[in-house]
Amino acid sequence: MKALKHLNKYFYKYRYQLIIGILITIISRVFALFTPRLVGASINIISDRLDGKVTDAVFRAELMTNILYLIGAAVIAGIFTFLMRQTIINVSRYIEYDLKNEIYQHYQILSLNFYKSNRTGDLMNRISEDVGKVRMYVGPAIMYTMNTITLFTVAIIYMVSTAPKLTLYTLLPLPILSFAIYKLSRLINNRSTIVQQSLSTLSAYTQENFSGISIIKSYGIEPLTNSEFDRLSAENRQKQINLTKVQALFFPMMILLIGVSNLIVVYVGGMQYINGEIEDIGTIAEFIMYVNMLTWPVAMIGWITSLVQQAEASQERINEFLDTQPEIQNKINEPTPIKGDIEFKNVSFTYDDTNIEALKDVSFKLKSGETLAILGKTGSGKSTILDLIGRLYDVDNNSVLVDNKPISELNLYSLRESIGYVPQDAFLFSDTIKNNIKFGKEDATDEEVFEAAKNAKVHNNIIGFNKGYDTILGERGITLSGGQKQRVSIARAIIKKPDILLFDDCLSAVDTETEEKILKNLVKLTKDKTTVIVSHRVSSAKNADQIIILDDGKVIQSGNHESLINTDGYYKELYTKQLSEKEM
Ligand SMILES: Nc1ncnc2c1ncn2[C@@H]1O[C@H](COP(=O)(O)OP(=O)(O)OP(=O)(O)O)[C@@H](O)[C@H]1O
């Protein structure tokens, strides 16, 4: 139960609703338990009438009163049972909502490394499946526990006061029932977990195939994917059948044990009545009703135990993530305005997970408003420099400085707010084009959106779509071309008007003519902004104040366009090669 302690703060938050819920549960059960007593009393009065002990008038009056009480008790018990669900189950839904938000907010602050070491499916599972299992503890488990305790306490008081010996015999099979249900529930849960796992394998496989459908079609491997799907599906079917087998045992077992209890009541109760140990025949009817009312809650004890065990396991998995501390911590609470000076002082950086030394002794200094272009072969460390400027990873020795301060001494959120980042693989959300651009500035007006799109040279493409800026992208909508995606992504960054702009090879899918036009616009827009452009093309770098060339994490050349084209080396070779390609 240690892991479930995490939920105590929520129980405290909803304490009043829970207390009311518990009181309502008690009231509903007390009223429900009037029924057996009233049925017993009604049979007794019938028996008395048959024996001539009461007059017809008394018989009619008493029977009628009992019937009215029975209806009244059933109605009240019904209303309170409704309210019981409305309070306790509602609280469980509130707690489920709060817990999901807590987990989601925590996910948001965790560092990139966390996302690399955990699979997306697992993150999703913990926030949906596991939270669902925890809710079963918060809601149904608590509700049925209260239900069982109240029902048991009141019923046993009534039963012992009526016929103590018969009570003992009646209750004998119940612990066996509870134990059997517990065992069965565990078996059911184990098998459902196996079914869940096989379902997620099946859906992960299907999802991946749908995403890569164009590859599957162009390679003509549909028969292969069909037979793999068939295999996974057959596996899942077998697991479902195994689960159904044990599930099918649940009700027969309950019916068997209720039957045995009923038999005991009829047999032992009948013998006691004949022997004169119990006075009224109505007691037997009353006890049969108790047995039937108690069987379900007793079975519940077994079920609840297994629910709590599952919730405990799920909460443990949730806590494992909630206890994970973000590697990148914000140490400064007050916002720090950012000017945009950037300096790398002999920066070396190794990725923990791969042990790849991506940067080796890299140094450069960029004043606010200046532009730096980074060129180099693939895998030479260019994107890593941008990641370090956005503090997606921390370097050990305070060697990355922004505004002359170690980057870790700036407010993390101020830093990130001041950055407009265009990644290498433009990611667009399944939303309208307009909202995708406004992502950079939520309160942007339509005019600002159009202007950003014009500067990114994508406006004309967008207005060419039937729904223009309201065109939905992604799975539910149209697919943009690689170059269009990159340009929407640029518009998203420039609409923000950030102090620092980071472009990661974001014009690679754009033809050179459009690139030229976008770069022209960017020169105007980034005049007073610190800009870092990663590229494989000289055309993107030539206007920069500074250019550095990386090779295997090291700076092998630096300078500006003029100086570099006059020096033998990577830049000059690239320039000559790209110039001749252009002329061809
Ligand atoms: N998140 C990461 N985790 C571990 N290793 C990484 C990570 N990102 C990059 N690397 C490694 O670090 C090295 C530098 O990668 P980086 O992405 O900075 O290169 P790049 O110059 O931007 O390459 P490209 O031009 O292909 O985009 C590569 O060897 C890469 O495999």
Could you characterize what this model shows?
- It is found in: Cell membrane.
- Pfam families: ABC_membrane (PF00664), ABC_tran (PF00005).
- InterPro entries: AAA+_ATPase, ABC1_TM_dom, ABC1_TM_sf, ABC_transporter-like_ATP-bd, ABC_transporter-like_CS, P-loop_NTPase, Type_1_exporter.
- The chain has 584 residues and is α/β, with parallel strands linked by helices.
- The protein has 2 domains: 320 residues, ABC transporter type 1, transmembrane domain (ABC transporter transmembrane region fold), CATH 1.20.1560; 231 residues, Rossmann fold (3-Layer(aba) Sandwich), CATH 3.40.50.
- Helices cover 65% and strands 10% of the residues.
- It is built from 21 helices and 10 strands.
- The chain has a 6-stranded mixed sheet, with helices on both faces. The protein has a 4-stranded antiparallel sheet with strand order 2-1-4-5, with helices on one face.
- α3 packs antiparallel against α11 and α8 runs parallel beside α11.
- The chain starts with 7 loop residues before the first helix and ends with a helix.
- The structure holds adenosine-5'-triphosphate.
- The site of adenosine-5'-triphosphate (ATP) has 15 residues, from α12.
Classification by helices and strands: alpha/beta
Strand order of the largest sheet: 6-7-8-3-9-10
| Number of extended strands | 10
CATH second-level architecture of the largest domain: Up-down Bundle
Give the % helix. Answer: 55-70%
Fourth CATH level, the homologous superfamily of the largest domain: ABC transporter type 1, transmembrane domain
Proportion of beta-strand residues: 5-15%
